[in-house]
Amino acid sequence: MTAQARLDSTARTDGGRVPASALRVFTERAFRALGVPEADARTVAGLMVEADLRGYDTHGVFRLRQYVNRLRDGGITPAATVTTVRESAATALVDGGNGLGHLAMKAATELAIAKAREAGIGWVGVRNSNHAGPAALYVLPQTRQGMAGLCAAVGSANHVAPFGGSELLLGTNPLAIAVPAGRQPPFLLDMATTNAAMGKIKTLAQRGETMPEGWMVGRDGKPLTDPNRRDEGFLLPIGGAKGYGLAMAIGLLAGVMNGAAFGSNVVDFSADTTSPTNTGQFVAALSVSAFADGTVFGQAVDQVFDEMRACPPLPGHEPVRIPGEGREARAARDEAQGLALHPNLLKELDAIAGELGIAVL
User: Fold this and answer.
1) Chain centroid to CA 342: how far?
2) Distance between CA 108 and CA 93 in Å, rounded?
3) In the chain, what is the straight-line distance between the N-terminal and C-terminal CA atoms, in Å?
4) How large a percentage of the chain has pLDDT more than 90?
5) What's the per-residue H, E or C state across 42-100?
6) In the chain, fewer beta carbons within 10 Å around the N or the C end?
7) What is the pLDDT of residues 302-324, one digit of tens each?
């Protein structure tokens, strides 16, 4: 069983199901208790629960503890204003006001889509933002408008060394791409530029599990498998030097291009709960109609999907799947049946409720 499958399996079998609506209300109350305006709290809570519904449980309510700590200690501005500071027909630069990153990224996504309707493409950079959950949240809205979506971010802490080096100067720097189809759900790629995202490792630590070799190494170059010792080493980039190069490219475009942090300027948003992170991100929308008839394009994408699935699997392997396949169905199922939360996560949410004086789940 893969490590991701183990995470999913554990969540399904060990946790009690919580209605998605109840989780949204709980998360919204937590933010409001910390001074986040009602509308903003509702928006962020909705996006966080959407992340869980789609299977990104390392970037959903699991992250509430980190957001609470930073709001409480001054690292995030509760009542922030998102502003557009530079703009052209197809581009813009958004300042998140050091608020919750979901708010800046939602605004950037909507602006990119609006620009793509007029110019065929919209590219919006973001600065003074914060951790915003999975990048997938900011590429799926484009597909509902007949557009492709692209999103990337500078990681919210440095967990990676340059290829061949030993100093932590890079984050996991995630990248997401979504492409609409015709009769089928969209193509959706959401990945870190490391073999594993740090969120997965933190989740394993919370659940008392180990991680496989190949995710992290210590500064002696030997594998690390205890997620509680993650601070003793660093994550490994995908494809060695290629993953390092991709993380650098994202850092330059999402960080340096936007006047946001990159390299040694990145603030560890978990360890430092008082300093602004100046997180950098970008989101883009590309209108299919600028290049092709939308119906014809959708049919062609469907055909490609069918061809991929029809490819005979290697012995011992499961059938070929399309990136993102099954997430729409999972979201619908868990919206109807409730979300399976691990007992240790439920304990953490109870602790947050006690600290903030709000009702427990």
Assistant:
1) 20
2) 8
3) 31
4) 88
5) HHHHHHHHHHHHCCCCCCCHHHHHHHHHHHHHCCCCCCCCCEEEEECCCEEEEECCCCC
6) N
7) 999 999 999 999 999 999 999 99
In the chain, where are the structural domains located?
A: 1-73+338-361, 83-194+237-324
Helix (H, G, I), strand (E, B) or coil at 187: strand
For the segment(s) 83-194+237-324, the CATH number from 3.30.1370.60, 3.30.70.100, 3.30.465.10, 2.70.50.60 is 3.30.1370.60
pLDDT at 142 over 70: yes
Query: What's the pLDDT band for 3 if we cut at 50, 70, 90?
Result: very low
Partners of residue 86 on adjacent β-strands: 93
Task: Enumerate the β-bridge partners of residue 121.
Answer: 286
Contact, 347 vs 360, CB < 8 A?
A: no
* pLDDT given at position 196: 87
Q: How many residues does the chain have?
A: 361
Handedness of CA 199, 60, 177, 126 (dihedral sign): negative
Q: Which two tokens stand for residue 296?
A: 């014809």
Residue scoring higher pLDDT (339 or 230) = 339
The pTM of the full predicted model, rounded to 2 decimals, is 0.91
